[in-house]
Design the sequence.
């Protein structure tokens, strides 16, 4: 008898990716990753052969006796075949995030998608654009923690969409903060007491539920008022530099993830954002000096 699947829909910016899964543990994993992007009333159980879902997570008999005995091995697949097999851990989540975002943005043509963190400070949105590894997730985590001198509300650490013809507005992709292994110790230091059991961690890094750091999630997103481009450099003193609209536009283009779908590669929208919004580059190695810098920097946008 074929397995019964539930369909979990991830909905973002008017787009949707359905994910089939055949266990309660996989459903709980999906809810941990995508709970802010899911309407539970839209995912009734369906038979495997009756759905054309894009992605499938299924329990497997396993290639490893140890994993099989603990019931921890799952397979992520799409129509082309198997994408990943292993435990429902940080590595599995990273592959799944990449696949979901790819399918969501593959045909996005009515706005620019940016690799960017985003937080809200006193009814102003601050974008933290950057490539993978730039430190936008760790900076987003710090800004939303109680240790920050200018505590912000979390929106996303990964992705925003700038809708076409909506100047200054964004659609954030909320998810757990995805912290790489090298920064996990710094983030654990700001986790509230008794919060460790809510983390998902392995040798690849740690996933931190954003409400663990900041329980007040702002579902109404104000316009963008500041751009901060973080760059992590081990051992470097904290440096901040105001940058020109031309330089800002060039940096934003490097973070544009759906450029190929747009007639002008998103250039017009990003130039407009760069011209209308102050921008800074921040080079850092720790957060020790952040609390001295932030009040003066954020004062200009309030």
Sequence:
């Amino acid at each position: 008898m074929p397995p019964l699947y539930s369909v979990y829909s991830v909905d973002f910016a008017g787009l949707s990716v359905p994910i089939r899964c055949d266990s309660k543990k996989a459903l709980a994993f999906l809810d941990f990753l995508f709970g802010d992007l899911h309407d539970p009333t839209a995912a009734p159980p369906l038979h495997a052969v009756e759905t054309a879902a894009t992605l499938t997570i299924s329990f497997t008999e396993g290639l490893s006796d140890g994993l099989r005995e603990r019931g921890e091995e799952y397979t992520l697949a799409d129509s082309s075949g198997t994408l990943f097999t292993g435990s429902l851990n940080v590595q599995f989540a990273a592959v799944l995030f990449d696949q979901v975002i790819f399918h969501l943005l593959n045909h996005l043509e009515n706005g620019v998608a940016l690799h960017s963190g985003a937080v809200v400070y006193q009814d102003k949105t601050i974008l933290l654009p950057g490539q993978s590894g730039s430190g936008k997730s760790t900076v987003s985590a710090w800004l939303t923690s109680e240790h920050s001198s200018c505590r912000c509300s979390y929106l996303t650490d990964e992705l925003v969409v700038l809708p076409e013809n909506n100047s200054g507005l964004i659609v954030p992709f909320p998810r757990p903060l995805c912290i790489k292994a090298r920064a996990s110790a710094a983030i654990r230091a700001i986790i509230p007491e008794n919060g460790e059991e809510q983390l998902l961690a392995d040798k690849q890094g740690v996933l931190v539920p954003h409400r663990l750091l900041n329980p007040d999630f702002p579902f109404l997103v104000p316009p963008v008022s500041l751009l901060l481009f973080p760059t992590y450099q081990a051992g470097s003193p904290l440096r901040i530099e105001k940058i020109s609209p031309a330089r800002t536009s060039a940096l934003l283009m490097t973070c544009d993830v759906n450029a190929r779908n747009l007639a002008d590669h998103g250039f017009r929208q990003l130039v407009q954002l760069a011209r209308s919004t102050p921008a800074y580059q921040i080079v850092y190695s720790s957060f020790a000096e952040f609390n001295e810098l932030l009040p003066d920097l954020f004062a200009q946008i309030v």
